[in-house]
Amino acid sequence: MYSTQVSRRISAPRASIYSALLSADAIARWRVPVGMTSVVHEFDAREGGAFRVSLTYDFSDGVGKSGFSTDTYRGHFVRLVPDEQVVETLEFETGDESMRGIMTITTTLVDAGADTEVTMLHEGVPDAIPPADNEAGTRMALDNLATLTESP
């Protein structure tokens, strides 16, 4: 298991970004890599609250962690600090031992002038997931988060 960290400056206030971190509708729109769609099955945005999300490849040649073309994960919110930090744990629903294990994602929001620096730290990522893939997916998600929260 390993860790990755990706940051992105977003031209939006911390409060707007924090809201998007805790909204099922927003999660379905931003926390999905390019080439996939998302379904939020369960989402209880409070400390201890559970969530369950599926990401499905748009094309049938995608290989999923949970099924032929789907990645489904479940987890819960560990710590919520309004407008500052979200800590969550999650695990893929899979029979593949190489993809199992509890991951922790800590998303931190820091003022950066008129912008917000958003940092996502992934800890406990299974070795079977190439670090470059994890980082690329996180960058795509942060780009989506910026599109969702930045004023036009």
UniProtKB/TrEMBL annotation:
InterPro entries: ASHA1/2-like_C, START-like_dom_sf. Pfam families: AHSA1 (PF08327). This is Uncharacterized protein YndB with AHSA1/START domain. Residues 12-149 form the Activator of Hsp90 ATPase homologue 1/2-like C-terminal domain. It comes from Actinoplanes lutulentus. Belongs to the AHA1 family. SUPFAM superfamilies: Bet v1-like.
